[in-house]
Amino acid sequence: MGCRRSLDDVADNLASLSVGGSVDAGGGKPAAEDEAVRLSKLGRKKDFKYMERVRGRLINVLEGLELHTGVFSDAEQRRIVNCIYDFQERGRKGQLRERTYSEPRKWMRGKGRVTMQFGCCYNYAMDKDGNPPGIIRDEEVDPIPPLLKQMIKRMVAWRILPSTCIPNSCIVNIYDKDDCIPPHIDHHDFLRPFCTVSFLSECNIVFGTELKIIGPGDFSGCASIPLPLGSVLILSGNGADVAKHCVPAVPARRISITFRKMDDAKLPYGFAEDPELQNLRAVPLRRQQLHDIPSPQPAARIVQPPERVMPTQKSMQVPAQRSPVLLNEDDFPPLRSSSSRKPGRR
Ligand SMILES: O=C(O)CCC(=O)C(=O)O
Fold this sequence. Notes:
alpha+beta; Jelly Rolls; eight-stranded antiparallel β-sheet; five-stranded antiparallel β-sheet; 21 strands; globular; disordered N terminus; binds 2-oxoglutaric acid; AlkB-like_sf; Oxoglu/Fe-dep_dioxygenase_dom; AlkB-like
């Protein structure tokens, strides 16, 4: 009974995410069968490895990363991107809550990208009201849009995200050509694992305990992982907390959606969990035909020789011969200030 309901739920989710009738569109093919085919084609790569000596111990700094490919079909990606563009339009027209939509001033390559925050307002850097980085608890943003909630349901149903860490917030990044996200470790106001889903154009995400800033939007690290369209990258363990990550200047417009669960102690004041996202379950394992496919899935390109000893704990280095490119406000611009909030309160 429970199993039947779970399958029906997943079939419903698939149907609601699919476009153009790929699921049971009059052809008589049951949605659950279609789901089984989709599941059998998923790629799951979990063996990312780059050994580094960190505080005297040799560890795999990429442990905890997983790349799941083929999660969202071309048609689903188009539908999700259209939904994002609709929200962007509403943001531009001032129809979203003030801090949901942010479009920073661009003044040089690699500076600024459009972001939309749902579920919580997050500050990458100290803002003009004196709020430190982290979730701003007394700020309200728009709730996660229905289609993005369907994405969460899909990822839990397909065992990409654990049912013990269901996201209740997300941030949409719209990168125009040459936009980037500089090296960072996601704030611990958010639990692990969290994940990022890729759309519109493929790019690399770069990892390392030391990420070098070579120029504006140009970063290098020990491993560079291509992010295929419709893929989900899971970050946890060392891959989330020991290695930093960044997206160097992208070659073409790209959209990513990063889904994260907030720490209960950091929830925005008055935050109500969405009943639709409670008690989600994975589909029964026997239907999953899980595959761990080491190749020909996209692999991490190891950029430097393995087992390198870290020369310094300093995380970001600027080549001495170049003009320094420092990370500052413009890399993670504070969100627009809001006159209604009390300074410094989180
Ligand atoms: O664009 C991506 O895939 C990564 C985004 C990211 O690191 C973030 O939003 O913190």
